[in-house]
């Protein structure tokens, strides 16, 4: 069991769950059940959590208990809920579903799905030659046990050299290799954050980072990003000074999901403010290599660090391939050793063969990354063109790098749109996945990592279901006073 969700909490997550205009054929109990399934599908409601009692949820939603009873019955029939008399009802994974590459639920028969829920590219052609070269290097490691908690020296040196080339002198002793960037974040949180500690994050932000923080029972405060401009310097620095969090998790390079790039002046001020209030910064650099349109990336945030307040994390998933589970932490040498001690109780070490593959890919980084930038620019422009043609009322700020667009929709329908799109073979990541407590319903993340033709097709399907959602009454949507 992962705990219990109270009626008021679930009500906030459900948001505008009622059947939308144009879909009034569905009764309220079916709309309620469908919205709960949507929360389960996109990870906002975890497996094994106990739902509120029928009467409690009915009171929180201000509806009849009969509606909730019928919704729970439908969820049991579809395999999303298990109930035991006197003990309650728990969420569960239906037998005809599996856990997808995103970590979320998906039907077993979704192989033809156009998946816009995951923001990652297919492997580059250079991967095969790198893998062959790595197998030739492997024999020199076979006489040992194969456990390298901080990573093999060749890879640590290659990563350190990449930081040095960006203007941040780094030694191999300051690098720890991990099993992906998410693993790097998890280890840093294990070391630096006690259960219940306060953490400042951007809103919106990376959903799996929120999941990792929830796993540490962190108290999360947010700094809202402007859809068109990103960070508001005075508000961000004010949040640091007022809340004095133990940690702040930031994505300054082509922020996920908005694509914003933090200017150098703000990076320096953030480091100074963090030092003044005793906050450690976790800087996620997953997208730092993926600039486009000749955009110059500012110096790393750690360039401005003089007090070991900045821990940088990154990895191979975005510029290279998600199937190569290689990430890293850059920190002070003593911090790296403390992280290694924490790691031994988790997974011992990353696979040697994967690390050798990474060494060869990084040796060819200039060519690989250049190809990726060209590919992503073409796909981004195809997605932007399709949106302008089919959904011109949506507002999108063109990102100068990364792999995602952050679209502001014409109504707070993100979750409903994601459920409808699934029915026509398109998987979406609705805005609330990237925030807290059901906010961001007016936004949608759209990665441009699929081939251009697939992106155009996906937008056509999304447009069709969007117009169907409220063709009986678009005027019913109200402009929100505040976007969280």
List the helices and strands and how they pair.
Elements (H helix, E strand, L loop, with lengths): L2 E2 L2 H8 L13 H14 L7 E2 L3 H8 L3 H13 L3 E4 L3 E4 L5 E3 L5 E3 L6 E2 L10 H12 L15 H13 L9 E4 L2 H12 L5 E6 L3 H9 L3 E6 L8 H11 L3 E4 L13 H14 L2 E5 L25 E6 L11 E4 L2 H11 L8 H12 L1 H26 L4 E2 L7 E5 L5 H9 L3 E2 L1 E2 L12 E5 L4 H18 L15
Parallel strand pairs: 1-2, 7-17, 9-10, 9-11, 11-12, 12-13
Antiparallel strand pairs: 3-4, 5-6, 8-14, 13-14, 15-16, 16-19, 18-19
Helix pairs in contact: 1-3, 2-4, 2-14, 3-4, 5-12, 6-12, 7-8, 7-11, 9-10, 13-15, 14-15
Sum up the structure in keywords.
disordered C terminus; 39% helix; seven-stranded mixed β-sheet; single chain; four-stranded antiparallel β-sheet; alpha/beta; 484 residues; globular
Would you write up a description of this structure?
The strands form six sheets. The protein has a seven-stranded mixed sheet, sandwiched between helices. A four-stranded antiparallel sheet has the order 15-16-19-18. It has a two-stranded parallel sheet with strand order 1-2. With 484 residues, it is α/β, with parallel strands linked by helices. The protein is globular. It is 39% helix and 15% strand. Strand 15 and strand 16 (404-408) form a beta hairpin. The longest helix has 26 residues, at 365-390. Helix 7 crosses helix 11. The chain has 15 helices and 19 strands.
């Amino acid at each position: 069991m992962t705990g219990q969700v109270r009626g008021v909490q679930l009500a906030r997550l459900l948001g505008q769950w009622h059947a939308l205009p144009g879909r009034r054929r569905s009764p309220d109990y079916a709309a309620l059940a469908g919205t709960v399934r949507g929360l389960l599908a996109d990870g906002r409601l975890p497996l094994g959590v106990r739902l509120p009692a029928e009467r409690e949820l009915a009171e929180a939603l201000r509806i009849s208990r009969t509606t909730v009873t019928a919704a729970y019955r439908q969820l049991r029939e579809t395999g999303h809920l298990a109930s035991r008399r006197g003990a309650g009802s728990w969420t569960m994974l239906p037998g005809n579903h599996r856990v997808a590459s995103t970590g979320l639920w998906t039907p077993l028969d979704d192989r033809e799905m156009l998946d816009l829920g995951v923001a990652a590219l297919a492997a580059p052609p250079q991967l095969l030659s790198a893998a062959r070269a790595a197998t030739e290097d492997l024999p020199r490691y076979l006489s040992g046990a194969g456990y390298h908690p901080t990573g093999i020296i060749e890879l640590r040196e290659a990563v350190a050299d990449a930081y040095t080339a960006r203007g941040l002198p780094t030694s191999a002793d300051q690098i720890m290799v991990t099993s992906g960037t998410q693993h790097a974040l998890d280890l840093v949180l294990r070391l630096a954050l006690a259960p219940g500690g306060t953490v400042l994050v951007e809103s919106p932000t990376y959903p799996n980072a929120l999941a990792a923080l929830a796993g540490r029972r962190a108290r999360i405060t947010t700094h809202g990003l402007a859809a068109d401009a990103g960070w508001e310097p005075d508000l961000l620095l004010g949040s640091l000074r007022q809340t004095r969090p133990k940690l702040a998790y930031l994505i300054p390079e082509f922020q996920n999901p908005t694509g914003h790039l933090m200017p150098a002046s703000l990076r320096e001020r953030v480091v100074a403010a963090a030092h003044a209030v005793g906050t450690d910064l976790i800087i996620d650099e997953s997208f730092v290599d993926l600039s486009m349109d000749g955009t110059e990336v500012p110096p790393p945030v750690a360039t401005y660090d003089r007090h070991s307040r900045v821990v940088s994390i990154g990895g191979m998933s975005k510029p290279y391939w998600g199937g190569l589970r290689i990430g890293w932490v850059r920190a002070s040498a003593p911090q790296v050793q403390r992280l290694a001690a924490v790691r031994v109780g988790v997974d011992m070490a990353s696979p040697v063969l994967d690390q050798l593959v990474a060494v060869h890919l990084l040796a060819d980084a200039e060519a690989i990354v250049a190809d990726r930038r060209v590919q992503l620019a073409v796909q981004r422009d195809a997605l932007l063109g399709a949106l302008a043609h089919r959904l011109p009322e949506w507002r999108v700020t063109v990102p100068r790098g990364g792999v995602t667009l952050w679209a502001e929709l014409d109504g707070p329908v993100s979750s409903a749109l994601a459920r409808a799109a699934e029915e026509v073979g398109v998987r979406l990541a609705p805005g609330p996945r990237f925030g807290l407590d059901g906010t961001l319903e007016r936004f949608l993340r759209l990665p441009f990592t699929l081939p251009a033709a697939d992106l155009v097709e996906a937008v056509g399907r999304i447009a069709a279901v969007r117009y169907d959602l409220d063709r009986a009454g678009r005027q019913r949507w109200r402009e929100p006073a505040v976007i969280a």
